[in-house]
Amino acid sequence: MIKPDKMTRQEMLDLLGLKPNYTKEEIKKAYRKMAKDNHPDLHPGDKEKETIFKCASNAYEELIKKFKKNTTHNSNYYENTEQEELKAYRTSILKEIESLIEYTPTNSQEKFNDIKEEFEKLLENLKKNIVKFAFKISSFSMTKQTITVEYDKFKEYYKNELTSFAKKFFTKYYIDEKEIKETIDYNAKLSDYFDKLLEIKNKYSKEE
User: What is Dmax (Cα atoms) for the chain?
Assistant: First the structure.
């Protein structure tokens, strides 16, 4: 297996399937395909694909340099600064989402056993869509504006998932649907959301 930091130029070209006279568009297209096929987030635990992804990333960074030779020092500085700011923005959004859906199965999960299928489906859907979202905003074509648009779409999806689950939950226990508005806090962590649902369930159980 080739090591990411010890690749020859020819090995880089072979890995990405490029000819020596490759264009800027060709290398970007080749890298996007390699990243999509081998991204660690899409293949957790697969060390071989993780190594290939690192090799492809290093090869891209090295081979793309030839298209930056004619840029001035100042343009390089502003380009690098812009990329660093974009990277920081992307990282902050991913951390915010990861914090939002942070959930460790505890006793509360056992209390959802009678709607276990819906409960596990909600968690699985959230997990899958976070991976898709993370991969989508990692694209080189993404700008701060387009990342923000995708983030807004994800938040809307998150709201819809919680609303759908709440309706199933309340229907199961014959709880008034108006409680949904009082229950769902889209800025709260997922664990707090579940705790609130259980709190309402317990309140209605006592009233019965």
Answer: 77
